[in-house]
Amino acid sequence: MRALVCLGAFFLTVCYTVFGEDAEIAARGGSKPIAYNFSNEEAKPFPGVYYADAVKNIMIKDAQAPFGAATKEEAAAALEGAGEKEKPVDERLYSANALLLENDVLAFYGQPSSKNMGILGRHSKEELLERLNTFAADYEAVSGGRSIVKAFHIIYGTCWPEGEIGIINKKVLQEYIDFALENNMIVFLDHQIGKYDPVKSLEAMLPYLKHPNVHLALDPEWRTTKPMVEIGSVNAEELNAAQQVMQDYIIKNKIPGERMLMVHQFNYVMIKNRSRVKTELEKVRLLLCMDGHGSPEKKRGTYAFNAEATNIPLKAFKLFLNEKGNTGVDSPLLTPKEVYELNPRPYVIIYQ
User: Fold this and answer.
1) In the chain, which residue ranges form alpha helices assigned H by DSSP?
2) Whole-angstrom Cα distance, residue 316 to residue 106?
């Protein structure tokens, strides 16, 4: 037994020696390699080095994951706490692997009570799911092996004249969240902010994070008292503060896993001082969504502008369907293959 203890201590010493100054880099997903400099090319490293390498690789993989989901046990506990113990949860919602590491998200956007705000308000939940299944099959056919997680992107707070905000009917919203969970889908709740503070707007949606499939979004276009007249904006400091408030809430309420926070942009004024936006929090994954309708050339140009924000590496892309009721459309609509050819490739694709 004493020999085993000594051997274990030696292994720990080797691990520490191998990690050394690179431990923090590895933990943060850095790519600085650890070099082994053996004077004799034929020399073989002690097995403890292999052990340490394996541990290091696991650490790096976890740290580099764009989005970490809850464990199965954490998700089960969260479901039980939300009164949803009997509802099934897709493996991808609680897998130890990151949700966006092996999957892309395909979402339908809108407000369930409005036919003019997106596809979500023009069809029943069942019809939307059926159509999402068709769209998902088209994307998986050209995804290069990545699977598709389906989603509803729901407008939680709608900007009214003079920047007032209309909040979605809570009963209707809960029906969509429940339906999504039962069908292995995720949900984005989107706040248009209006005349209010972005952080306060985000805080209104935080309680819905008790559901393991709910994520959040902010739309700076509507952060204004003159909707449809001027384009609104948020600044980097406000986005950084919103992320911190979201993380603090997740930790305080022991919500498992990590959650996404999406911010929309189609014009440079929408995010001021964008280069100062930070994306280093452990529990929040910020996505920059290219919004706006138009021709393929215009869409690609706007996406290229968003791609310049390398400090926000996770990207999303919105498309506008040519359906009755849409205030704007993409003409012609990019195909799934063309969407995947965007650089960088988007992790979340949204149809309005």
Assistant:
1) 2-19, 23-27, 47-64, 72-81, 91-94, 99-102, 125-140, 170-182, 198-205, 236-252, 296-307, 336-340
2) 10
Given a contact cutoff of 8 angstroms between Cβ atoms, the answer to whether 89 and 212 are in contact is yes
Closest CA to 48 of 10, 19, 20, 1: 10
Paired residues of 351 in beta bridges: 108, 319
Could you tell me which residues come within 8 angstroms of residue 239 by beta carbon, excluding any fewer than 6 positions away?
198, 218, 263, 271, 277, 286
**Do 198 and 238 contact (CB within 8 A), yes or no?**
yes
CA distance 92 to 37: 41
Give the pairing of strands 234-235 and 103-110. unpaired
- Structure-token pair, residue 197: 């503070």
Give the containing element (helix H, strand E) for 46: none
Question: Taking Cα atoms as reference points, which of 70, 73, 61 lies closest to residue 92?
Answer: 70
Two structure tokens written together for 169: 């009917």
Using the CB atoms, write b or e for 218-255: b if 16+ within 10 Å: bbbbbbbeebeeebbbbbbebbbbbbebbbebbeeeeb
User: Taking 90 as the threshold, does the pLDDT of residue 327 lie above it?
Assistant: no
**pLDDT given at position 318:** 97
Which fold does the domain 72-351 belong to in CATH? Answer: TIM Barrel (3.20.20)
**Per-residue CA distances from 39 to 18, 44, 45 (Å):** 17, 11, 11
C-beta of residue 241 within 8 angstroms of C-beta of residue 211:
no
Q: How far is Cα 197 from Cα 70, in angstroms, rounded to an integer?
A: 30
Q: How many CB atoms lie within 10 A of CB 281?
A: 17
Write the pLDDT tens digit of every residue in 73-114. Answer: 655 665 565 555 444 555 555 443 468 888 999 999 999 999
Euclidean distance between the first and final Cα of the chain, in Å?
A: 65
Q: Are the C-beta atoms of 108 and 128 separated by less than 8 Å? A: yes
Q: Which of 225, 224, 352, 201 is nearest to 291 (CA)?
A: 352
Query: What residue segments make up the domains of the chain, in order of their start?
Result: 2-64, 72-351
> What's residue 92's pLDDT?
53
